[in-house]
Design a protein that fits this description.
Shape: globular
Helix content: 40-55%
Radius of gyration: 31 Å
Number of helices: 31
Largest sheet: 10 strands, mixed
Strand content: 15-25%
Low-confidence stretches: 223-227, 552-561, 828-836
Structural class: alpha/beta
């Protein structure tokens, strides 16, 4: 029995992974071990991972590309199990038949020249439709799955076992010796075209690639493959050129470069030229590594004869994906869960019953790490309770920030007497139907407030019904999505846009975190059809900045500056970074600037309390740690990580200067900084950039030391200037504290929300048909798709006619008179000139 080590990469999709693993474990006639590579995964794994001794887990330290993740799984398996007979690389969204793996092994055992095999892939959600019978590749380096989207019944007789140019990386079996000989997966592409590269390397080494039709694997292929993001299109165009740099013969490569530059960029559609130019530049940037790979893998080129001609890529139309079944309601919460909220009473004449959906942990909770969304939730809810409303808060626990709890829903006591009733809700229960709906049914709110992040805002839109709904857009979703591309380049902004559309179409009033963002939201409302005749003159969007509280001693314990930290002396100048390392964090400037300042002042120590924002940004914090490890002053970077609330507050009390480094991004320009406001309220001097609206205000009023974004030297200047005169620093910090308490108190910042809540009602255009709504545009797109499908049906029918014997005979008949006339008029000379 042959040994097979399977590697599957997992980012998200717990249920799909469960199906994949259980079907693989049911494989017969092979000795199988499975390695799951966690690649930026922030979700709980299915139970089968713990239940099966044949399933093993290895986690990438930071999100990596497809090839690197597969190589990581291989390296781990080699270290723990040794070399198998075969490596099997399979997507986590597949479902394997029990004999699929054994049949592929048999195909390679039957062909001494073959080293790679692939199964027949079927579309898992479209019964009887093909996903892949192997990969076709054109001479201009495009590839497509044979048979994709075609019903098996319509395809005709399926080909038998045969040699193909390549097989898809969704499920690919590789003989271990050949895999080692070609050096594994090429870590050059990030995503897309790695499977073709691997197959061509194997073929260049003298082996063959086969497709085994009897082996069947279902694949949850996307039904929206034509709606690619610009980033995916960029990767397709770039990696196709990289593939050619590595493998194409010189003649074909020269022809392809001419096509790419002249035909596709200079003469191609003008709207696509910028993206294609970027792709060409990106490919040229990888040219040295590609040429090195070319030298390593030169060999046989018999696969060139299998390349399809340019322009032969068919129009791919996938069957319509069935609507997802409605999710089953979450388990009913225990009786009496919401009793404390049911008994709430309003204490003001204009008081209303208000349900607030936000994030946990809240500022008063002593958890692993308190983030800005929790503070924002408490800012909104607390201000409404202060005004005499009966407020119930459902706070979704941000994954990784709270200690594990036994119950999905827990009552949390703010410990401040009268105020909101707060429930902390596990993230999965918060998102699924059931918990929030039962709270609404029990509490019976008059209005709903949702925000502090996209998740709570979306749930608020789902459960509000016909109640007035305030949506807090705590940061611009599209700008945040763009910032995430810096750490998760495979992200798709389409998901951000879809969530934003729902919020903009349903909200009756909106809050932004800055005046700049308020104008951005107005533009977004215009694009979604909300700036219409009915809303003319209505104030739909309000600015609600982050707030501060006068709580310098809050949660500091005894307030003593003696931390019991042996690395901090009484005369040391303590610089502080507190909170998460988010997508906007400029790690290089932080490390470089502090290092330059430390070189000039030996008293400086940087204390870091906080860490990665799990699932959102898993790269910035590891990058910071790497920079610290390389620093010549590494021992003066005091990385304390995530701390309980009280311990983190004690470090803030000891600190002499707070530092925040920001990249010059749209997200920063539109956003704010909760940590800076907290430092201001606690009287801690601040060094920051002027990128955000908050930063520009602090710069104009000389309330902070401001440095140029991305300039480590200027950051060092600001730090040294503040550290050189402690008295001046304290005086500036006190002025900043008084200014913050006057302009950014909870009552002042939330005045628009409090005013709206007293007389909340639906927006003037509620219930009015919106021709620019997502539903209306989706119907237009569906009609366009139907017309496109009809066009392709007609084109396919014409293609069949043009290939028929009757058509070819008719064309020959029509061409005979023209040929005879040409010969008669042109004489017998081939050049067409008459004989003299």
């Amino acid at each position: 029995m042959k040994t097979v080590h399977a590697v599957t990469i997992h980012h998200r999709g717990r249920d799909m992974l469960d199906v994949c693993l259980r079907s693989l474990l049911a494989s017969v006639d092979v000795d199988l071990e499975i390695v799951v590579v966690l690649n930026g995964c922030d979700e709980e794994l299915p139970e089968i991972v713990e239940e099966s001794p044949r399933v093993h887990v290895v986690a990438a330290e930071a999100p990596v590309g497809f090839s690197e993740a597969n190589n990581l799984g291989v390296a781990w398996a080699r270290e723990h199990f040794g070399e198998p007979d075969y490596w099997y690389f399979i997507n986590n969204d597949t479902r394997s038949e029990p004999d699929a793996l054994a049949l592929q092994v048999a195909a390679l055992e039957a062909d001494d020249a073959a080293a790679v095999a692939g199964p027949t892939l079927l579309i898992d959600w479209a019964c009887g439709h093909l996903n892949s019978l192997g990969l076709n590749v054109t001479d201009d380096a495009w590839g497509w799955d044979e048979g994709i989207g075609v019903a098996v019944a319509d395809y005709g007789p399926l080909p038998g076992r045969r040699r193909v140019t390549a097989v898809t990386g969704s499920a690919i079996l590789v003989e271990a010796g050949a895999f080692r000989r070609v050096g594994g997966w090429t870590e050059l592409y990030d995503y897309y075209f790695e499977d073709i590269d691997l197959c061509l390397k194997v073929r260049s080494a003298g082996f063959q690639v086969v497709h085994e039709p009897a082996a069947v694997v279902g694949h949850h292929v996307s039904a929206t493959m034509t709606l690619e993001s610009d980033h995916k299109l960029f990767l397709f165009w770039r990696n196709r050129l990289v593939l050619a740099f590595v493998h194409w013969p010189v003649r074909l490569l020269a022809r392809l470069l001419k096509i790419a530059v002249v035909d596709e960029i200079l003469r191609g559609p003008a709207d696509q030229a910028p993206l294609r130019r970027r792709a060409l530049q990106g490919a040229l940037g990888k040219l040295p590594r590609a040429l090195a790979a070319r030298r390593r893998h030169r060999g046989r080129r018999d696969w060139v004869g299998m390349l399809r001609p340019r322009g032969s890529v068919p129009v791919i139309t996938l069957p319509e994906k069935p609507a997802a079944p409605a999710p089953a309601p979450a388990e009913t919460v225990p009786p009496g869960t919401w009793d404390a909220a049911v008994g709430l009473e309003v204490t003001a004449p204009y008081g209303r019953r208000v349900l607030v959906l936000g994030c946990a942990p809240l500022p008063f909770e002593d958890e692993r790490m308190n983030l800005a969304p929790g503070a924002r939730t408490w800012q909104l809810a607390g201000s409404l309770a202060d005004d005499g409303h009966a407020v119930c808060v459902l706070a979704m626990r941000i994954p990784g920030t709270c200690e594990p709890r036994d119950r999905a829903v827990d009552r949390v006591d703010p410990g401040h007497g009268a105020g909101p009733v707060v429930f902390s809700v596990e993230a999965k229960a918060f998102r699924e139907p059931g918990v929030a709906e039962s709270a609404v049914a029990a509490f019976r709110p008059d209005l709903v407030v949702g925000g502090s992040s996209a998740g709570p805002a979306l749930r608020a839109a789902q459960v509000a019904g016909e109640r007035p709904l305030w949506i807090d857009l705590f940061g611009d979703l599209m700008a945040e999505g763009q910032a995430r591309l810096g750490v998760h380049p495979d992200d798709d902004l389409l998901a951000c846009r879809e969530v934003l559309e729902v919020l903009l179409e349903r909200g009756d009033a909106f809050s932004a975190v800055s005046d700049r963002q308020r104008f951005a939201v107005l533009g977004q409302l215009g694009l979604t059809g909300r700036l219409n005749r009915e809303t003319l003159g209505s104030e739909l969007v309000h600015t609600v900045p982050c707030s501060v509280t006068d709580d310098r001693q809050d949660d500091v314990g005894d307030g003593s500056p003696d931390l019991g930290d042996p690395d901090i002396g009484a005369d040391d100048v303590v610089l502080l970074w507190s909170g998460g390392f988010n997508t906007w964090c400029d790690v290089a400037t932080l490390v470089g600037g502090v290092e330059q300042a430390m070189a000039a002042d030996p008293r400086l120590r940087l204390v870091v309390t906080g860490g990665a924002v799990r699932g959102h940004d898993d790269r910035s914090y590891p990058a910071f740690l790497e920079g610290v490890a390389r620093s010549r002053f590494a021992e003066r970077f005091l990385v304390r990580g995530e701390l309980p609330t009280g311990r983190a507050a004690a470090y803030r009390a000891r600190a002499d200067l707070g530092i925040v480094t920001e990249r010059d991004l749209a997200e920063r320009s539109l956003g704010s900084s909760g940590r800076v406001l907290r430092w201001l309220a606690e009287g801690l001097p601040v060094v920051c950039t002027g990128l955000s609206e908050l930063g520009s205000i602090l710069a104009a009023a000389e309330l902070a030391w401001v440095y140029r974004a991305g300039d480590p030297g200027d950051l060092a200047r600001a730090v040294l200037e503040a550290a050189a005169d402690p008295e001046a620093a304290r005086e500036r910090a006190e002025r900043a504290r008084r200014y913050a308490l006057e302009h950014w108190s909870r009552a002042t910042t939330t005045e628009p929300l409090r005013r709206w809540a007293r007389q909340a009602r639906r927006a003037p255009d509620a219930g009015v048909a919106n021709p620019l709504s997502a539903a209306a545009l989706a119907e237009l797109r569906a009609e366009l798709d139907r017309e496109r499908a009809r066009y392709h049906e007609v084109r396919s029918e014409l293609g069949r006619i043009h290939q028929s014997r009757m058509w070819k005979t008719w064309m020959l008949y029509l061409s005979v008179p023209s040929i005879l006339r040409g010969r008669w008029r042109g004489g017998s000379g081939p050049s067409g000139r008459s004989r003299e």
